[in-house]
Amino acid sequence: MAINFNKVEFVLSAVKKSTFVRDGRPQVTFAGRSNVGKSSVINRIVNRKNFARVGATPGKTSQINYFLVDQQIYFTDLPGYGYAKVAKEERDRWGQLMEDYFQEEGLITVGVLIVDARHKPTADDVTMCDWFKGTGCPMIVVANKLDKLKKSEIEPNLQRIWETLELDEEDILIPFSAEKGTGKTELLAAIAELCGK
Known about the structure:
7 strands
């Protein structure tokens, strides 16, 4: 059954373990650094301008947001990481929330890690990638901001991302531009396939 990715609704924000959604639907979990354009990627693939709130201040999402897509799967939006201006206790709370989320078996169906196509993945990106690998779920790495690269930079940059994150051949790396929509078809196809839809 095909998924209509334009049919999407916000369900809830989980701030603690007891409020995680556990209804058996596949969960596609989005993670990325605070300023990598994670909300913009989600907005682009569900065809909405301001659906996943694009924060004026990076690092403002400190809860896990659930969006139900076509009554079939969840897009689970994790808080952005690696932003220094967040108070320490907020960071600790974030860390605990993430740990609870990643440690619970069966929550994540597909991991989507969003990185910046222009730069080598940060230590935080590598850690998040390892967390996804630790769950054993399939992973899609989205190299966003492709439109900011020259043609000649694309291949070497993608290669560098692949090597830095130590991806395996079953991992998927998709060059993407939230700005222009490049990679959207590939990303949706990969999500649908990995969710068995």
